[in-house]
Write a structure and sequence with these properties.
Order of helices and strands: HHEEHEEEEHEEEEHH
Number of domains: 1
Distance between the termini: 87 Å
Number of helices: 6
Helix content: 25-40%
Strand content: 15-25%
Largest sheet: 6 strands, antiparallel
Radius of gyration: 23 Å
Length: 248
């Protein structure tokens, strides 16, 4: 008996069947790839943290991570402690780098005490404190890892984004922008000021490291404002830790 393919019922059944089949295939693919995706995320976070403290493969102008093959061993070598700060309490946690900053920001808005990851690294006899931060750019999320010394002077930074405009806001992950933050003071006379990405900054060569400003990217005002905001909102949360560090 032949099937009447001209009937609406046949079209509906065929469409539903295809949706179920394709959906099942996509779900299976996502499930089978999940371990690889998670591993890639772990490696990327390790690379980001290492980059911020100067463990990278940069050339004269380009920003380059250490390889994914080398990242785990280098992470163990240079990161001496992983800390979690919550409600003023500081604990060690070897998986602090896996804490989801976006989720913690959401929890904080709901009144749940936020977990603040902080990574203590050491390279060439110098101690680095690396904090992850997250904010909003023009189109979507932006984030960074900022390395500081005990005086909250920036020693390095890595910025990234989800969907900023190529050639404009996307340039926050270019070396000419990221390197400007090195040496910048987050404190002024002991008070947290953060760093403003300033349009019309009177210091385009970024020679003044105590003005709490870096030069903005032309045509990327909103992305720059997002960078300024996430630095001021997220890094301010670490001030009490650094004050206690200085007092001990």
């Amino acid at each position: 008996m032949s099937v009447n393919t001209d009937k609406n019922s046949y079209t509906m059944i065929f469409a539903i069947t295809m949706v179920l089949v394709v959906g099942s295939l996509l779900a299976f693919t996502a499930s089978s790839l999940s371990p690889n995706i998670d591993e890639n995320k772990r490696l990327e976070k390790q690379q980001n943290i290492l980059y911020a403290m100067g463990v990278n493969e940069n050339d004269e102008s380009s920003a380059n991570f250490v390889s994914t093959a080398d990242a785990p061993e280098l992470f163990k070598k240079y990161i001496k402690k992983q800390l979690v700060i919550q409600d003023g309490e500081v604990t060690e946690n070897d998986n602090a780098y896996l804490i989801d900053v976006k989720k913690e920001q959401t929890n904080a808005k709901a009144g749940v005490a936020r977990k603040l990851p902080l990574f203590v690294g050491e390279k060439d006899g110098k101690v680095y404190y690396i904090a992850p931060i997250r904010g909003k750019g023009l189109w979507d999320a932006i984030w960074a890892y900022v390395a500081m010394d005990e005086d909250m002077i920036v020693q390095g930074a890595y910025f990234d984004h989800k969907g900023e405009t190529p050639g404009l806001g996307a340039n926050i992950k270019q070396r000419f922008f990221m390197d400007d933050f090195i040496g910048e003071h987050l404190l002024a006379d002991g008070t947290f000021k953060g760093i403003t990405v300033a349009k019309g900054n009177a210091d385009p060569k970024n020679e003044n490291k105590t003005d709490n400003e870096v030069d903005a990217i032309a045509g990327a005002t909103i992305t720059g404002d997002g960078v300024s905001a996430m630095i001021k909102s997220d890094l301010k949360l670490y001030v009490s830790y650094f004050k206690n560090l200085k007092n001990n």
